[in-house]
Structures are given as structure tokens and as C-alpha cells.
Amino acid sequence: MTLALVDQLYFVRASWRDGLADLSRNDAETRIEPMNPISWMVGHLAAHEQTIWLKIPQGRAVDTAVDLCKPGQPAVTPPYDVMLAAWEQIIAETTPYLDALTLNDLTQTLTYEGEPLRESTGTMLHRLIYHYWYHLGEMQAIRQLLGHRDLPAYVGRIPASAQFRTDDQTSHT
After folding, report:
1. What kind of architecture, by CATH, is found in domain 4-162?
2. pTM for this prediction
3. What is the pLDDT of residues 138-149, one digit of tens each?
């Protein structure tokens, strides 16, 4: 059974995907300073997912192209198609790990390169969900500045899989 908090991540990922709908490569790679381009945001979230769910607990990486979008790196405008493909591949690879998490796992603090992390797995999951919502709003603002209309409303209809439930209730996914 998928944990309720993990289903919340899946919901925000779906909302993120909706936010990218009908986005051209040119618009995704347009930088309106001081904001980063949308292509960078895609790579940035992919880099977070890869670090938190693949590198730290599993010691592996799927696509290093997203490393240039990690925090602290110089401003770049990466190719949108490369970042989107990396994001899709990374989230596909993280799903089995996330689906297997237990409530006990969420309370644990992982170790990376021999050092305990400052946050529990559950707190990192919360942080990532909030991070997606932040960049989703930023992305939609950029799209509005670029003249896009009829963008999705956030947060709109909440599907059964993302509605409140306790973790002892069955997931709808």
C-alpha cells in the first residue's frame, strides 16, 4: 500500500506535468531574469528527486545531465527536451522505492557518505512536495509573462488518490 504522503508527491508530480502541457521548447528555455527558465526548473526538480530517492538511499544515479541544475550551480539554460526526458526517467526509477516506503521509514534519518542527514525521510518528502508547489507557481507566472492563456487552475479537483486518508486506509492508486 502506498503511503498517503507518497500519494501527495504523486499528485504534485501530476500537477507539475499538467503545468508543462503545451509548452514549447523555446518558451521553456526563455529566461526572464532573475528567474530561471522552466527548463532549468524541470532539471532542478529531477536533480532533487534523483538525490533524495536514488543517490542517498540507493547509491545510484540515472541521469547526470540534471546535475547542472543542482542548488549552488551557475545559472544555465539547459535543453528542455533533455531535462524533461531526464525527469521522466528519474521519476520512473524512484517509484518502486517510494511505493515500498513504510511509516517507520519516514521517521528514519538516512546516512549519506558516512554522515547522518539533518532531516528524516518524511521531512525530505514534505520538503520535495513543497518545492514542487513553489516551482509550479513560479512556472505558471513565467508562462503568464510569456502570454500563455488558459493555464490549469491550482489546486483544482483533488483526485481520490490525493484526498485525505490515514495510512491504514487503502490507497486509490
Report:
1. Up-down Bundle (1.20)
2. 0.90
3. 999 999 999 999
